[in-house]
Specification:
alpha+beta, 1 helix, five-stranded mixed beta sheet, Immunoglobulin-like
């Protein structure tokens, strides 16, 4: 009986790992993220479809607020969300193993296809932003 339990656990873990990999395939790249230097304010650029996510300093560490975003993919025609660095220091944004620098006051608009993707911060390995698009 114990062997069946271990086998079931291994099989379910493998299925979930493969499902996670399949859902994380839409990646943000330099082509899907556009910078908006010279914008008047970050709040004036919130996409009609998406949310504005800020990188803020909380308890001395950079974090995302909010840390989960749900949005519609809109066939790659409209930004899903805007990410703004409201801290006073450059932030290294980690997306699927790639790091992009986001300067203080800078914001990026992201367009994704359906799926789930997770962002991280180089300065705080515990800060995560999960984007769920449909």
């Amino acid at each position: 009986m114990q062997k069946n339990h271990k086998l079931r656990t291994i099989l379910l873990s493998t299925v979930f790992a493969l499902l996670a990999i399949a859902l994380m395939t839409p990646a943000a790249s330099a082509h899907t993220a556009t910078s908006a230097h010279g914008a008047a304010t970050a709040t004036s650029q919130i996409p009609a479809n998406g949310q504005n996510v800020n990188i803020v300093t909380k308890h001395g560490k950079a974090v995302f607020t909010p840390n989960v975003v749900h949005c519609n993919a809109q066939d790659f025609t409209k930004p899903c969300f805007t990410l703004t660095n409201t801290t006073n220091v450059p932030q290294g944004l980690i997306v699927q193993g790639n790091t992009f620098n986001l300067w203080p006051g800078e914001d990026l608009k992201f367009i994704f296809g359906p799926g789930v993707i997770t962002f991280g911060l180089k300065s705080n390995r515990h800060a995560h932003l999960t984007i769920i698009t449909s």
